[in-house]
């Protein structure tokens, strides 16, 4: 049985899933961070996160298949311990936050990511690989709380001076790993249940279309303008979530 959401909620969910698929396809990387905040405008953040995770796993299959072999394997292995640490911390803290607390956390994460995308510095030389553990730990935590693992990962990876394809492929594999790690805790916490699973199943075609469009767009559309629109939208959504929380 599908969740009894309003029409507006379903429209936001469908749009959010599509955006996540586009991001997974490699276009405007990190764009999927907007998905849970958008959904949380109409349903609870916990419901949004639980509904989206099975879809993320489906998208990961498509994305990893498309980009496999071009990832920086050493970087992915450096991330794995930190991803486990971040997910573990998120699992322990998840029940301690109220719905309003989750909205506030999500709003702050959204604004931080938007500010980072707007002001991100251009590094003169690659940063040390020892920063992989803290970056991955924060990635695991923010990914667990709101599927928002891109900001801390990008803060580390962008200065590593990877090629575009290697960057996209490394992100695709890393997010697939963290989403698999999150699955058992989400089920244990009850964020994934029969009702949310049915909703996720219905939305699989939207996820697939999004990934395919992302793969097509990433080599054909100017990302600069697209990023500016994404950043503007994230500021608006982030402020709205914080307003709802307080």
UniProtKB/TrEMBL annotation:
Bilayer topology: Multi-pass membrane protein
Keyword list, A-Z: Cell membrane, Membrane, Transmembrane, Transmembrane helix, Transport
Record-linked InterPro entries: TM_pro_TauE-like, TSUP
Domain of life, per lineage: Bacteria
Pfam family, one: TauE
Primary location group: membrane
Transmembrane regions listed in the UniProt entry: 7-27, 39-64, 76-94, 100-119, 162-181, 188-210, 225-243
Subcellular localization(s) per the UniProt record: Cell membrane
Statement: the UniProt record of this protein carries the keyword Transport: yes
Statement: the UniProt record of this protein carries the keyword Nucleus: no
Family: Belongs to the 4-toluene sulfonate uptake permease (TSUP) (TC 2.A.102) family.
Name of this protein: Probable membrane transporter protein
């Amino acid at each position: 049985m599908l969740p009894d959401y309003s029409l507006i909620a379903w429209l936001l969910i469908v749009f959010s899933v599509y955006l996540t698929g586009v991001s997974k396809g490699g276009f405007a990387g990190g764009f999927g961070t907007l998905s849970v905040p958008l959904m949380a405008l109409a349903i609870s953040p916990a419901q949004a996160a639980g509904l989206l995770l099975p879809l993320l796993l489906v998208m990961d299959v498509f994305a990893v298949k498309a980009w496999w072999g071009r990832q920086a394997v050493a970087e992915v292995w450096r991330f794995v311990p930190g991803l486990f640490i971040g997910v573990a911390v998120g699992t322990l803290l998840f029940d301690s936050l109220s719905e309003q607390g989750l909205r506030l956390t999500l709003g702050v994460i959204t604004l931080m990511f938007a500010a980072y995308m707007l002001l991100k510095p251009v590094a003169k030389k690659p940063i040390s690989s020892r920063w992989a553990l803290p970056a991955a730990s924060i990635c695991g935590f923010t990914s667990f709380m709101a599927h928002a693992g891109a900001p801390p990962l990008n803060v580390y990876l962008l200065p590593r001076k990877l090629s575009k394809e290697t960057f996209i492929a490394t992100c695709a594999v890393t997010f697939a790993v963290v989403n698999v790690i999150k699955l058992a805790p989400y089920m244990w916490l009850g964020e994934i249940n029969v009702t949310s699973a049915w909703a996720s199943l219905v939305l699989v075609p939207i996820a697939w279309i999004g990934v395919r469009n992302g793969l097509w767009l990433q080599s054909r559309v100017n990302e600069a303008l697209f990023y500016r629109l994404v950043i503007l939208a994230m500021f608006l959504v982030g402020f709205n979530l914080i307003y709802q929380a307080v």
